[in-house]
Amino acid sequence: MRKFWCGFFIFWPIAAIIYSAVSPQFNWWFPGPSVTELGQRIDNLFYLILIIVTAVFIGTQVALGYCLWRASHNKEERAWFTHGSHNLEVIWSVVPSVILLFLALYQMDVWALYRVQSFFPKEAREAPVAEVTARQFEWRIRYPGLDEHGVPKKLHLKPQPDDLYTVNDLHVPIGRPVMINLRSDDVQHSFFLPHLRIKQDAIPGQIIPIWFKPERPGNFDLACAELCGWGHYKMRAQLIVEREVEFQAYLQKLRADQNYDGHATPSAVAKKDE
Amino acid sequence: MSVRWQSLIVGLACALAGCGGDGSQMRFVENSTLAKPVHRKARAVVKTTLEEHFGAPLNSVAWLELPVKYGRAEGKITAIDDQTLSVEFNAETMDLTGFDAAEFAGTELLLTSGTNQEKAIPLASFDGKTKTFEMSSLAVVPAVGDQFVAGGNVLKHGRKLYARHCQHCHGVSGDGDGPTAKYLNPRPRDYRQGKFKFTSTAGPAGKATRDDLRRILGQGIPGTYMPAFVPMLKDGELTAIIEYVRWLAMRGEVEWQLLGQFKDEYASDRAKKEAKESGGKESEIEKQIDSQLKEFVKSGLSALVQEVAGDLADKWIAAEEEGAAIIPELARVADSPESRKRGKDLFYGKVANCVNCHGLAAKGNGAQTEDVAKNLRTGELYPTPGLFDDWDQPVKPRDLTRGIYRGGRRPIDIYRRITQGIKGTPMPGAPKTIKSDEIWDLVNFVLSIPFESPAPKTASAHSIAGQSGEKGHAN
Ligand SMILES: [Cu+2]
Which residues, including other chains, have CB under 8 Å from residue B164's CB and lie 6 or more apart? Predict the structure, then answer.
């Protein structure tokens, strides 16, 4: 029975390591490498913390296992009671504090870039690409209208007559920082782009800017990560990252669809609405 | 086994299967204003007729009289190779459009000719490219040249999706009375009258087209609780849901129509009335009614059912025909200040008279919303002032200053709303005297309202509307 407990405590760090090692193969890990560079840096922070806690976890478990093992083989030596060791207490207070302080300082620039508006890339901050409004149970998206050259205008906080509307389908261009304004129409939702490592609550009455710079084209999940009502699961939308020309062509198609009057319009093909 | 054990096992089975519960029973219009005036025995006849032709959700009947694509295909077996059947579909009877080949997995192929006629072959898969079925058992071996019917599980597939995504609000039988319905305003649509508000077809009786339903599922209805279901639901899933919703709508419509047919001859107070008039015994007359009804069930019912179904099938089919969708005579008149001005004059003018309901500031609080309206079906006045729809729910004219357009914001959508009205609501289609270009002026004006709120007119013709508009009830 004594041996059992040694094995028991040694087993868990081994199980944890095996589990972590095989996870990526079964897609139990991140959904692929991040689509944004900032997301990579967030992943790196995650891995750093993971390594530190893994080392601590394994260390404590091994120590625990070793003590039990030694005691189970040693009939002579008796356990002794100690009321504390000043030196030990200093060590296990100071060492974690230093680690925590290090992490707090080390992650600061990532956090600032991710959350603090004055650190956002200037071009993203000045020209938000769309406004995304969460609603029970969908994402309503508003793009600014296009000028005579087909280039998006400035997005205003208030709706404009030529704004373009869509739902559950967010398109953004690749390779440049884009910012969206996040709002909520009713309750609290959360704008979650797992492939970009972005998660931001949408709060009624607030406009929250989010920026990212997608580096890879593709069709990614946009989900709600805040239980917002019985139809929460319905808030499953998509983020489409595409080349600048494709993005502009998409907006132009959106404009043609939205101006459809039953007669030939620039994109009469766009009669079907999906 | 004791009853307690049995119920425990049932409970466990439920927990494991996710339990659809016994909520999946079709409901019948029993307490509505339409059903009450009908004799209870006639109501029972309607109920059994419905059960016969539509079945229950878990055991639905694909009634071929209805224009629903059940995903059913007829054809001939052209070659047999081990477990594989090569087939040739009969072009006219194939309505697989939009369905995935996977639809066939787990279904049966029913032989309709040959030595194994009326026998079924379980299927494992279907390959649309090579037109081959994989049989999952060799218990029945068909011969080359045998005719068959296959597929047809769209209702089953549609019901599953409907139960997962729609039933919560729209109810098992599509009566708009699911568990969450009572918390919603506006109420979820009750399909049973076969009426859908926002369609591309002519008003007021035009049916919704498949594309209309697909558009609503894809875009949702802004300003209501109907969310958009794309991209969560894929094309084939939408198709299955659409067919199921059409089927539910037709089921409801058959019920309403039959009740309407029975209303006069088999009134619930017939025995009482006749007894009073002739001085006879009420129970005698009840017996008479009973035998008359039994006679009718034997001789005339099936013809009536066919007629009702045929009529409504015609309407649903007509909606799908080319030219059923309203296309404006003219292309949109360019949006200019002059056009908006003309539209504005129409909005406030006597002919279109939009202001009557939508109000001086277009906030949806016109004079009409303060009047007590008459229920056109019962002839009685509604208990409270305001407008009501065909489902007897209070409705408000749209507040046009908010820029939320339930039926869509495209010019064509607004054009259709103005010319055809909104089905099932007091919003009428514009009088035919208003020409296409004038409608476009109205569209241009309506779309400009959120961005320049119209100043109230001082003209005396609208002074009454003006007064009530000023009081302006909360919106
Ligand atoms: Cu949500």
Answer: none
